[in-house]
């Protein structure tokens, strides 16, 4: 009789232990995360708080939409500027190299290595090792087609890099709207018939 009285009590203790949440030191709890977002938002100017209020309600959708917008604002101008330079006679080499020379040098070396690795536009595996950015500009002036494409891509890359602050501001500004678009799209795609 004594055992029967203690057995249910013993089972209750095991069930109570299982249902208790365990403390894991590496995991942050939602309440501390929410208070941290509130502290950061409170420090911002009033005109910017309306854009960060969405972080309280839907941080994943806002972060994803910002990242997508940020990448779109990098890819679209890169291809648009390359097309402008390639299909028109407008190639502002002197202006861009004088104002954004480091970006042009970086773009030439980066895309020359990439084109050589892929074998695109007539670049071979050994082209990237031999050539310098100044040599690429000289070959562009002489009229080699593959270096014309390389310089046009490098100029588009330099201008896109120089527009980074404007791209970030535009992405932050459009994030709440684009998060709503993504959530509506998700609802439409995951709707069960």
Automatic annotation (TrEMBL):
Alphabetical GO CC annotations of the entry are:
mitochondrion
Q: Which residues form the signal peptide?
A: none
The keyword Lyase is assigned to this record: no
- What protein am I looking at? Uncharacterized protein family FLILHELTA
Taxonomically, the superkingdom here is Eukaryota
- Give the residue spans that cross the bilayer: 63-85, 162-183
This protein's UniProt keywords:
Membrane, Transmembrane, Transmembrane helix
Q: Which InterPro entries does the record match to this protein? A: MRX11
Keyword Cell cycle carried by entry: no
């Amino acid at each position: 009789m004594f055992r029967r009285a203690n057995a249910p009590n013993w089972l209750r203790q095991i069930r109570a232990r299982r249902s208790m949440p365990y403390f894991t030191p590496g995991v942050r709890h939602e309440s501390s995360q929410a208070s941290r977002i509130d502290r950061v938002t409170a420090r911002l100017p009033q005109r910017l708080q309306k854009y960060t209020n969405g972080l309280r309600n839907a941080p994943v959708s806002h972060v994803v939409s910002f990242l997508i917008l940020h990448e779109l604002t990098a890819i679209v101008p890169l291809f648009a500027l390359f097309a402008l330079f390639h299909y028109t006679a407008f190639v502002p080499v002197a202006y861009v190299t004088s104002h954004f020379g480091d970006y042009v040098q970086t773009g030439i070396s980066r895309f020359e290595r990439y084109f050589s690795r892929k074998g695109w536009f007539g670049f071979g595996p050994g082209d990237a090792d031999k050539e310098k950015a100044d040599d690429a500009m000289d070959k562009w002036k002489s009229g080699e087609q593959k270096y014309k494409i390389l310089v046009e891509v490098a100029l588009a890359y330099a201008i896109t890099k120089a527009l980074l602050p404007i791209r970030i501001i535009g992405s932050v500004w459009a994030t709440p709207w684009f998060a709503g678009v993504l959530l509506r799209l998700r609802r439409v795609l995951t709707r069960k018939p």
